[in-house]
Amino acid sequence: EVITVQELANRMAARGGEVVKALFRMGVMATLTQSIDADTAELVVQEFGHRARRVADNDVELGLVGPADADDTMTPRPPVVTIMGHVDHGKTSLLDALRKTDVAAREAGGITQHIGAYQVNLPDGERVTFIDTPGHEAFTAMRARGASVTDMVVLVVAADDGVMPQTIEAIRHAKAANVPLIVAVNKIDKPGVNPARVQQELLSHDVVVEDLGGDTQVVLVSAKEGTNLDKLLEAIILQAEVLDLRAAVDRPAEGTVIESRLDKGRGPVATVLVQRGTLRQGDIVVAGAEWGRLRAIVDDKAKTVKEVGPSAPVEILGLSGVPGAGDVFTVVENEARAREISEFRTAKLREKAVAALGAGRGTLAEMLARIQTGVQKEVAVVVKADVQGSAEAIGVTLGKQGNDEVKVRVLHSGVGQITESDIQLAKASDAVVIAFNVRATSQAREMATRDGIEIRYYSIIYEVADDIEKLVRGKLSPVQ
Ligand code: GDP
C-alpha cells in the first residue's frame, strides 16, 4: 500500500471523487483516506492520461511525466462519436451514409479505407470523428480497459421498431460512462412511422428529449435516403460546443489504440486515435506492451501524412507487435525508455492474466495453462442470463472474440437459472459457465464443485467480455 487515494488525486491535480469513481470502475472500493497498492495506483494514473514512473516492483514514483496540460495551451478539438443502437436499426447504414458526406473524401475521389474510425470534414471546416465499429461492444471493451475515447453517443432508434433491448443497453452504457446522447430516429422514409412514439418510449428510460423539456437532442433521419444527415452533424457540433472539447496540440502525442492487426506486407498495423498532442512520423511510440519508431502514418483517406493532431484517427506502422484495442499509446523521448516501459508492461500483463484467472481456481487455471502452452485452441462458454436480450448480447459479443490462435465458442446461451444440464454441457466441453444476473440451483452448484466446473457470476456485460478476452490472451503472453 503505497499511497492514499487523496494524495494520488492531489498529485494528478484531479478531484478525489473522480479517483474514487475510477477505482470503483476498476472494482476497487476505496475511500479518500485509504491506501492503494502500486499496481492499482499505476492503473489509475494511466486512466487519467498520465504516466507513472515505476521505480521498483513495489514502488511507483508518481512524479508524473505527462501531467494535465495547462488550460491556456489547449485549443478546440473535433468530437469523437460512437454510434449505438439495436441490431438492424441502421447503425452501419448511418455510418456509411455519414462517411459519404465528407467533403475531403469527395475531393480525393471517394477513396476511404476502413481503419476502425474515420473523420468527416464538414463544408465549413468543422470535423467529426466517428468510431467505425457500430454497437456497444467496442465501446464497452474499451471502457473495460480504462480507455475513454468517446465524447458522445449517437443512439440510433428505428422509427418503425422503437426502443428495443439493445437500445436500453446502449442507454445504460452511455450513462455509466457519463457520455451524452444524441438520438437519431432512423428510417423516417418508411410509410406510416411515428417518431413521436420513440420519444415517449425513451422517456421511460430517463432519456428526455428537447421537445419534452429535456436536454437530449433528437434528429429524424433516413440513412437510406440521406435525409437530415446535415442536421445530425449540426447536432453533434452543438453538443461538442457544450462539452467544450479541447486538447493541447503542441506536445508529444498520447491516445488510444482503436484496433490493430498483423498485416502480411506491412507488419503490425494499429489504428490509433490521437487524444492530445501531435503525432509525427519518426516518433518513438509505446502502445500497450509494444513499441517502435513510426515508419509511416496513414489517414482514413489512405493518404500518408507527416503529422496529425487531436481527435485524428490514423494507422501507424512500425510497432514491434500488435497492441490491444483500448491500450494507451504515448510518444516517449528515446528508444531506451520505450524498451524499458514495454518490458515492464509485458511482465505486468503476464502477471495479471495469471492472477486474474489463475488464483487457486481449478478449471480456469488449467484452461489458461493449456491455452498458454498451445494445447487448447478454443475457449468454450455456456451463458445463462436473466433476460433474452442480455443472453443474446453476451452470446454475440463473445462469439466475436478470439484471435487466430484461440477461438471463443458459445455452446449455449439461454435464459434462466444455471441447472445441472448446463454443468453437464460445460463439463463435456471443458467450458466456463457464465451466470449473468442469475444464480445456480443448489444441485447445479454441488455438481459444479464436484466436477471442477467454474461458474462465474456477472452483472456487467463488458466484464464478461473482458475476462474472456484475458483468457484468450493467455496464449498471447505466455508465462515461462
Ligand atoms: P445495424 O444492424 O444497426 O447496423 O443496421 P443496418 O445498417 O445493417 O440496417 C439494417 C437494415 O435496415 C438494412 O436492411 C438497411 O438497408 C435498413 N435500413 C437502414 N437504414 C434505413 C433507412 O433509413 N430507411 C430504410 N427504409 N431502411 C433502412
Task: Describe this protein's structure.
- There is one protein chain.
- This protein is α/β, with parallel strands linked by helices and 480 residues long.
- 35% of the residues lie in helices and 26% in strands.
- Strands 17-16-22-13-14-21-18-19 form an 8-stranded antiparallel beta sheet, with helices on one face. It has a 6-stranded mixed beta sheet with strand order 7-8-6-9-10-11, with helices on both faces. Strands 24-23-25-26 form a 4-stranded parallel beta sheet, sandwiched between helices.
- Helix 8 links the parallel strand 10 and strand 11 (217-220).
- Helix 1 (5-12) crosses helix 2 (16-25) and helix 13 (420-428) packs parallel to helix 14 (442-451).
- The radius of gyration is 23 Å and the shape is globular.
- The structure holds guanosine-5'-diphosphate.
- Guanosine-5'-diphosphate binds next to helix 4.
- GTP binds at residues 85-92, 132-136, 186-189.
Can you give me a brief rundown of this structure?
The protein has 480 residues and is of the alpha/beta class.
Quickly list its features:
26 strands, 480 residues, binds guanosine-5'-diphosphate, single chain, 8-stranded antiparallel sheet, disordered C terminus, alpha/beta
